[in-house]
Amino acid sequence: MLTTDLLPAPMREPSVVMDPRRLGALQPTRLSAARSIYAKLVRENWSIDLVEARVEATGAGRMLYRIDAAGHIMHLVAFSYEPQLVDRSPRIIGSSWDIEGALIDGEVTEAELLATQEAIPRLYAGRATPETLIWFRANRSIRLFDHVIEALVAGTQPDVQRIRDVGYLLRNTGLDGNGTFGTKDFQEYGAQHPLGIPFHAQLFTAYMMREISVDLVNATARVRNVEAASVDAATRNTIAVGNGSALGLVLLTMNRPQIVHAWLSAYERIAANVGRRTIDDAHFLAVTTMLDQAIGQKNDDHTDYGVFPSGEALAIDLRVLRRVLRRLADANRHEGGSFTLTDVTDRAPSSILPEAIELFRSLLLELAPESEVDEQLRSLRVSERKQLDPLTTVAELRAQIDHGFAWVRELPVVSTEEQTRVWYKSRNSEEPRSGPSWEVPEGTNDLAVDLLAGVTELEALLRNESPNTRVGTLAIAHPHLEQVMAYVQCLAALPYAVPRFDVRDTNFVPAHIIRLFNAFCFGLEKTHDVHQRNLRGLIFEGAHFRADRDEPARDWRWEVQR
After folding, report:
1. Residue 45: phi, psi to the nearest 5?
2. What is the value of pTM for the model shown?
3. Which residue ranges in the chain fall short of pLDDT 70?
C-alpha cells in the first residue's frame, strides 16, 4: 500500500480554477516565463556582451549583443531611430517604432543584419532570416527617456522618483516568434535549446530590451558629452520594461488550450505538493518572512488597478492569512495538531480576495525544490495538436463530453440579447478586437472558438445518432462542428484547458483572461486594467542587469517599493 506522502497531492477542482475571476487573480510565480528564464540565465551564468554600439546624438544607431548561453551562442541586434511622433501606439496598431530588432540563433553576418533592418519595418510584408528567433519593437518613454539623457550629459544621475513614477525607459510594442514573420518555429528549437521552454525566447528578449534601454541612454549621453555620467547601480535597479497587452491574449487562450492546461496544472501540482507539508517552525518562518515582504510591497503600491484590487486591499487580506498561519502553527506546536500549509487558505475567511489567496499559493512555490520546478517547466513543452480522430464512435465522443465538458450544461445561460460579442482583427493592422455584432461589417471573419455553443449543439446532435456511428461520418455531414469535435477529443482529459465563460457575452470582462497570460504565464508585475480590455504592466522590475552579475542572486520580486 502507498503511504500518503507517495500519493499525488489533490489539486483544486477545475470548477474553481477555470472561473475567469480566479484566472485573473493568479499571480506571477517561479513558473512564469520572466522569472524562470531569469533564474536560468543567472544559474548558468550566461555571458551578455555589447560588441557594437554605433549611436548618434539623437540616439539613432545600431547596437549588437553577443550572448553565450552556457556554450550556445546567440546574437541580438537593436536598431534605434529618432522618434517620429506620428503613428505611434503602445499596441501593434502602430507603424512607427523607436527601436526595432531581432534575436538570432548562432553567429551572424553583416548581410543578415542588413536584411533584418530592411525587413522589420515592413512587418507583415517582411520576412525574418532563417535563424531568427524573435522580432521585437519598442518605443521610448516620452516622459522619461530624454530626461535621463539630459541628466547624464550634465554629469548627474536622473531623478529616481521620476523613474519610479514611470517605471521604464523603453516600452515593448511587439515580441514576435514561433513562425510569425518567418521566425523559427518553436518546435524547431528542440528541448535542449537554452530557450526551449515556451515563451522563454520572448521574455529573454524583453530582458534584453531593459539592457538596451540603459546602454542606449549611456551611449547617447557620451556622444553629446564625452565626460557624461553613466546610469549607476542604484538608478538602474529602478528601471523595468513597460508593456501593454490587450485582446490578443484572449484569442491566444482560445487557440492554445493545451499550453493553458500545462501551465495551470504545473502550478496546481507544485502548490498542492508543497501545501500538504505540516506547518512546523521552519515552514512557519519561511512563509511568514515572504508574507512580510509581500505585505510591505503591497502597502507601498499605489497603482490604480482598475477592476483588480488595490495593493492596500491585498495587504489587508495578506495580514489575515498571516494570522491564520500563526494560529495553525501554534496549534501544531502546542496542541499536537497536524495542520498543513494548504489549511491556511482552506480555513481563511470566505471574504478573502482571490488575489490574496493566489499570492499566498504563489509563495508556496518558493519552497519547492529546484528539481521539481525544472521538471514542471519541462512539462510545458506539449503537443498542441487538435486534429479530429474520425475512427472513434459517437458513444466515445459522448463519454468525452461527459468527462471533460459537462460544465457546459451547468454554466449560467446568457440571454440572447446579451450574446452579441464578435472577435475579429482589424483590416489595417490585424489588431485583435471584439465588439457587438451590429458594429462589425458583413463577412468579417469571427475568430472566436465558441466551445460553449459548439458543445451544446453537438450534444443535441448526438442524442439522435447511433452510438456506433463513426465521428468521421458525423463530421462529413456537419462540417461546421468538426473543430468542436476535435477540441472535445483532444481536451477532454485536460481539466485546466478551457476557461469557463461565454465568449459571446456582451458583459464579459476580457481583462481577467488577459491577465492569465500577462501576469501568471509571462510574469509581468503591476498589471493594471485600462477600460477592462487592456493591461499595462512592468517586466523585470528589480532584476539584475548584466553589470550586476557578481552580486548575489536575489528574489527581485519584492525588491522595488513604489
Report:
1. 55, 55
2. 0.94
3. 1-6, 86-95, 429, 550-562
